[in-house]
Design a protein that fits this description.
Elements (H helix, E strand, L loop, with lengths): L3 H22 L2 H6 L4 E8 L11 H7 L3 E7 L4 E7 L13 H18 L3 E7 L3 E8 L2 H13 L9 H11 L5 E6 L7 H10 L1 E8 L11 E5 L6 E5 L3 H24 L3 E6 L4 H15 L1
Helix pairs in contact: 1-4, 1-5, 4-5, 6-7
């Protein structure tokens, strides 16, 4: 039995995100994702007017006369949400924790998918695979995805993005639209992203809190690494210390952007202190223009 507080949060997110999808994102999701894939249908004999590049040369050689491969547009898609629940996701100094914002973004994606009759699944990961919900359709299934995104208690604290992407390939037989929601403050995931983006239509959604980039001037401040548990004191009254912290954070952010660019992976940058819907609309417009 889920606590009433969680049920209230699920209901609030359901109302907010479903209305958001209907009022502001209706049609945009479909225009940039829907029906862009093709799947193999059959091999048939060549007919006048068929394109030469469609010829299946292996079958043609065996049969002694031309055959072509026939493909059909893939109407139903599968959307997979890879949700990072490592220790750093339970941080937030603005309106909400990064984990709460990630759950709401997951809901937006899930409701967008079922509105277009697509299936949606969820992979929750830390430094291990914590939970897998196979892709299905329907509102009740989406509500389960939201509940897990909000309520699930992970065992791990670290981050293994590469491991999550390898797991995705193990549970999907076909090309999917894969949204990876994380702060991407991790290591050694570039190769895995590159492979995943070639096999699937992959999109990175980064979530950042303003205090991960800039420290306030509040004197001595005890900070804790959310993934290792180690603590240390920082003198935030020292301008040089604040600058070093800020420079280091921005370098990490620039590095992850370079990684996305190098593997030609689409991405959205979401912050806990700013409305995320603007970033969604900007992303959809940019992607639609490119398509």
């Amino acid at each position: 039995m889920l606590p009433k507080e969680i049920l209230r949060k699920v209901r609030r997110i359901e109302i907010t995100t479903s209305k958001l999808v209907t009022d502001m994102l209706s049609g945009q999701y479909e225009s940039v994702f829907k029906g862009r894939g093709i799947e193999f249908d059959e091999v048939r004999e060549y007919q006048p007017g068929d394109e030469i590049r469609s010829i299946d040369w292996n079958v043609t050689a065996r049969m002694g006369h031309p055959f072509i491969k026939k493909f059909v547009e893939e109407r139903q898609m599968t959307v997979m949400i890879l949700l990072d629940m490592s220790g750093s996701s339970y941080f937030g100094t603005a309106k909400r924790l990064k984990s709460e914002l990630a759950a709401e973004i997951s809901a937006v994606l899930a409701f967008s998918a079922i509105q277009n009759k697509d299936r949606v699944g969820l992979i929750i990961f830390t430094d291990r695979i914590e939970k897998f919900i196979p892709p299905r359709k329907g509102t009740s299934h989406v509500l389960r995805v939201i509940r897990e995104a909000l309520y699930f208690k992970p065992k791990g604290r670290g981050t293994d993005i590469a491991g999550a992407l390898r797991y995705l390939d193990g549970v999907t037989a076909r090309r999917v639209v894969a949204f990876v929601i994380s702060d991407f403050f991790a290591k050694d995931y570039k190769k895995a992203l590159s492979i995943a983006n070639k096999r699937h239509d992959a999109v990175a959604i980064t979530i950042t809190d303003p205090r991960e980039v800039d420290l306030p001037n509040v004197g001595l401040l005890e900070l804790q690494d959310a993934e290792t548990g180690s603590t240390f004191l920082v003198d935030t009254s020292n301008a040089a210390v604040r600058k070093k912290y800020s420079d280091g954070a921005r370098a990490l952010i620039e590095e992850r952007v370079k990684v996305f660019s190098s593997v030609s992976m689409d991405h959205m940058d979401i912050r806990t202190d700013k409305p995320y819907i603007e970033e969604f609309i900007k992303f959809f417009k940019k992607r639609k223009k490119r398509i």
